[in-house]
Amino acid sequence: MIDNKKVLFSGMQATGSLTLGNYLGALKNWVALSDEYECFYAVVDLHSITIRQDPAVLRKRARALLTLYIAAGLDPEKNCIYYQSHVSGHAELSWILSCFTYMGELNRMTQFKDKASKHADNINAGLYTYPVLMAADILLYQADVVPVGIDQMQHLELTRNIAQRFNAIYGDVFTIPEVYIGKAGAKIMSLQDPTKKMSKSDENPNASIYLMDDADAIRRKCRRAVTDSVGEFRYCEEQPGLRNLIDIYCACLNKTPDEVVKEFSGSGYGQFKEAVGEAVVSVLDPLQKRVAELEKDKAYIDSVIKNNAEKASYYSMKTLRKVQRKVGFPDRIR
User: Fold this and answer.
1) The pLDDT value given to residue 117
2) Could you give the residue range(s) of every CATH 3.40.50.620 domain in the chain?
3) Which region among 13-17, 58-62, 68-72, 130-134 has the lowest average model confidence (pLDDT)?
């Protein structure tokens, strides 16, 4: 708890470009949480280097992501928006927690197996211990709640296990985090394969709409979106492509699927795809304009980076010093 508010932690990797799915599924909903929670939103650049990165590109993408956080409506005065790499406590706590994590637990992590299969030429120890760093991210701020997708549930459960194990040995040190259950973000699927999530790492450029895509690119991708040969305008699992487009339209314009089906009943898929394209443009255009404004104000973004890193470091050190003392590290001479 901070100032009688529960603590919420989340973050996104500074790799690739954020998609419409990232925005409608997570970032858009983060904005309303600062009234209820003390929120820490990291640009998780430490996690990013489990895969080889071009240093200049990583730095550029990290700043772009932090800028997007603000452009999306996250107030850096009310939310702690910072670079994970600027707070040394993440790495320090990760090492300590790795000594309380069992090999068998890490061997069961399905995301490691998935990523290792995709990057067989670089199966490094960081990729293997990634879940421990994620646990450190969460426990460092004594997070009460963490908004996670289904693909991260296994990591959160490991975090809880590690915290409970540490507490059983040393007393009440860590808050045991719970899954954040709030308004569900829209689950946006690939435009070319609606059986899988829209991803910023998809090799098909037409599968994902990126937040900084121009209007023409957005419209073009929507026109090329996979639908079906049924020809009926229905919202059902048997028509996943059309269902996905309806979900996008609903999320952009705050409508229900029933309202959309009624609105476009009797219309062709082509007409609806045009409407979806315009709806997405209407949402992303003001976001892109705000990003452009912020990018011109280098001093402001620099001040956010500096001030929020100091805030994150202050709260992280409170936990880290307590943990270090519990495990027996010598006190620091002040």
Assistant:
1) 65
2) 6-181+298-327
3) 13-17
Report in angstroms the alpha-carbon separations of 46 from 129, 160, 245, 325.
12, 21, 34, 25
Q: Are the beta carbons of 210 and 19 closer than 8 angstroms?
A: yes
Distance CA 253, CA 258 (A): 13
pTM of the predicted model, to two decimals? Answer: 0.90
Tell me the pLDDT tens digit for each residue of 89-140: 999 999 999 999 999 999 888 876 666 666 677 788 888 899 999 999 999 9
**Type of residue at 261:** V
The class of domain 215-293 in CATH terms is: mainly alpha
Classify domain 6-181+298-327 by CATH number: 3.40.50.620
Mean of pLDDT values over 64-90: 96
Residue 244 pLDDT > 90: yes
Ranges of CATH 1.10.240.10 domains, the chain: 215-293
Does residue 184 register a pLDDT over 70?
no
72-96 burial, b at 16+ Cβ within 10 Å, e below that, comes to: bebebeebbbbbbbbbebbebbbeb
Looking at the chain, the number of H-run helices and the number of E-run strands are: 14, 5
The SS3 call for residue 299 is: helix
Environment class of 251 (CB within 10 Å of its CB; exposed 0-12, middle 13-18, buried 19+): buried
Q: Which residues on adjacent β-strands are paired with residue 2?
A: 5
Does pLDDT of 4 surpass 80? Answer: yes
Contact 26, 15 (CB under 8 A): no
- As annotated, the active-site residues are 115, 197, 200
Tokens 């550029």, located at residue = 60
Question: Residue 311's CB: how many other CB atoms inside 10 A?
Answer: 17
